[in-house]
Amino acid sequence: MKLYTKKEECCGCGVCYSMCPVGAIVMQEDERGFQYPVIKEEKCIGCLKCVKVCALKARRNCVYGERYERKKSNL
Ligand code: SF4
Ligand code: SF4
Q: Which of 15, 27, 45 for mutating ligand 2's site (highest number of atoms within 8 Å of CB)?
């Protein structure tokens, strides 16, 4: 599971990292020194808090955000 597919879908704010209840997200530096979140699958419990708090995903401009919206509408 990824929090973004293209770098335009993530500004590296780290809010998802801060909000994950089980510490499943780490911020990893790319080749230019910017930090991006990576989900450790083995720790993730699938709560989707990281998606809910992401301002960029709220705009539904990425695949993961759209999946979350679909899941929410099925509740
Ligand atoms: S909250 Fe969204 S924009 Fe911020 S680091 Fe996480 S995925 Fe990227
Ligand atoms: S879905 Fe929940 S447990 Fe998994 S990375 Fe996101 S906030 Fe953490």
A: 45
CA of 25 to the centre of ligand 2 (A): 7
Q: How far is it, in rounded angstroms, from Cα 38 to Cα 64?
A: 14
| Ligand 2 contact, 25 CB (< 6 A) | yes
What stretch of H or E contains 37?
strand 35-39
- pTM to 2 decimal places: 0.80
For residue 55, which of 9, 5, 2 has the smallest C-alpha distance? 9
CATH number for the domain harbouring residue 19:
3.30.70.20
Q: How many domains does the chain have?
A: 1
pLDDT digits (tens, 9 = 90+) for 26-37: 999 999 999 999
Q: What is the mean pLDDT of the chain?
A: 84
